[in-house]
Write a structure and sequence with these properties.
With 404 residues, the chain is of the alpha/beta class. It has 4 domains: 157 residues, Molybdenum Cofactor Biosythetic Enzyme, Chain A, CATH 3.40.980; 53 residues, Alpha-Beta Complex (Molybdopterin biosynthesis moea protein, domain 2), CATH 3.90.105.10; 92 residues, Beta Complex (Molybdopterin biosynthesis moeA protein, domain 3), CATH 2.170.190.11; 72 residues, Beta Barrel (Beta-clip). The protein has a 6-stranded mixed beta sheet, sandwiched between helices. Strands 7-4-6-5-8 form a 5-stranded mixed beta sheet, with no helix packed on it. Helix 1 packs across helix 6. Bound molecules: adenosine monophosphate (AMP) and magnesium ion. The site of magnesium ion has 5 residues, from loops.
Amino acid sequence: MLSVHEARERILSHFQKTASETLPLTACANRVLGVDITAQHDIPLFDNSAMDGFAIRAEDTHASPTTLSVVADIPAGATPTVTLAPGQAARIMTGAQVPAGANAVIPVEDTDVRQHAAGTFAPKTITFTKTLKAGDNVRERGIDMRAGEIVLQKGRTLKPQDLGLLATLGMAQVTVHKKPRVALLSSGDELLTVDAPLESGKIRDSNSYTLAAAIENAGADVLRLGVAKDSREAVTALFDQAMHEHVDLILSSAGVSVGAFDFIKEVIEANGSMDFWRVNMRPGKPLAFGSYRGINFIGLPGNPVSAFVGFEVFVRPVLGQMSGSLDGNRQTVRVRCGEDIESDGRESYLRAKLRSESGILQAHLTGHQGSGNLLSLVQADALLIIPAGVKCVPAGQEVFAILL
Ligand code: AMP
Ligand code: MG
């Protein structure tokens, strides 16, 4: 049986990056940058005031007190027309361009004026006792970004603050990778939609909801195909629908084990190829990879926790790779086991709650680790990774954990 690492490498080798597209900046949140972004000019583009106050010449501030005559008024957005001579100041607002001759700003609250009430005229003179150095309260041209500097790297998932930076640079259009498209189906005669009345022997399809949200959270678009009944015809019909939509991946849950009604494997084999259908892991051993009429296929297990873990371990990395993302995977950290943990020798992904104790993350299992127990997954902050071959991790030992 394949190890998790071998299975993931094998799956990843079948996926290419999506092409890029150019979108308006307003559509770029959470999208993956397709190019490096270089600052086209210095930011800020001109020396400007960090405070509401008066632009002055620092060398004029050695008398105590200093009195200067106010020769100009510079609101934000204005172009100063004066050059300060010795003994002169200009009223200036935060963000306004510092006039020629000035090299510092004295905040209004440090002068005898104390505050500029909205609508007041500039005073004739100001008096203050502080001594200033050149550069005080001035935001120097280029202090934030320099022309020619790479400020955002290709492969970065754009955060809100990145959009602000792109706007600062005047980038109304941005080149990003296209979102991968994933067709999602559940399978099983026992499955009801969320709004259907319960019936004897039936359960609600939860995987569709978990996995669709996980796909979108990983930066891809989802085509929800619903539930395939346990028959060759039903499974084939949904796979064909996915094929006609030219998706990048068909993702299913359930029906890939050794049950008498598990038709998915058979349909894949009849219309493409099955590369493997088991991985040495827990939960989630029945995990299938293959292709259906030329489209890559991943079959997750049916049990809700197994399906989720399979998604995190195999599908999220695939979607990250396709979307060109360098930062799309979940963070893995070292944590200390807060209790003895038993395992069965397979690479195991166990649900745990993390608590910080004196700065060290301590992990406690969230309860029974049965692969159908969704509440214990909901309560978990992390999946502890117990390596293959390990049967017991004593309390106090460190393991890696995937933060959820
Ligand atoms: P299977 O792989 O078809 O044998 O399914 C394994 C287990 O997962 C069974 O207990 C199923 O009822 C359950 N299961 C399968 N699909 C879903 C689903 N979409 N939502 C919740 N449970 C499911
Ligand atoms: Mg089934």
